[in-house]
């Protein structure tokens, strides 16, 4: 099993709203980001061409430049 990052999971508006809410609870929070993370459970090792196709399929939505992530990471999942 491996993982691939996807597109931003929230709009800038929603991120700003969530950041303000978090900052009201703890002023140490200075930034917030949210991205989809795809888990791939392959039944066999994938060839380079298959990995390329998978990356293209999972490249969707708005393109945002991500800065180096610092601080604490939180992984939220749903089934």
Describe this structure in words.
By secondary structure, the chain is α+β, with helices and mostly antiparallel strands. The protein has one domain. It is 30% helix and 16% strand. The chain is elongated, with a radius of gyration of 16 Å. The protein starts with a strand and ends in a 22-residue tail after the last helix. The relative contact order is 0.25. The mean pLDDT is 85.
Give a brief rundown of this model.
With 79 residues, this protein is α+β, with helices and mostly antiparallel strands. The protein has 2 helices and 2 strands, in the order βαβα.
Write the layout of secondary structure elements.
Blueprint (H helix, E strand, L loop, with lengths): L1 E7 L3 H14 L9 E6 L7 H10 L22
Antiparallel strand pairs: 1-2
Instruction: Going across the biggest sheet, name each strand in turn.
Output: 1-2
| Average pLDDT | 85
Task: Return the string of H and E elements.
Answer: EHEH
> What proportion strand?
15-25%
The total of helices stands at 2
Proportion in helices: 25-40%
């Amino acid at each position: 099993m491996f993982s691939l990052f996807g597109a931003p999971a929230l709009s800038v508006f929603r991120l700003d709203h969530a950041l303000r809410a978090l900052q009201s609870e703890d002023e140490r929070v200075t930034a917030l980001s949210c991205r989809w993370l795809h888990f791939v459970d392959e039944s066999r090792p994938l060839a380079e061409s298959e990995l390329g196709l998978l990356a293209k399929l999972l490249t969707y939505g708005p393109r945002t430049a991500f800065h180096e992530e610092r601080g604490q990471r939180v992984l939220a999942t749903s089934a």
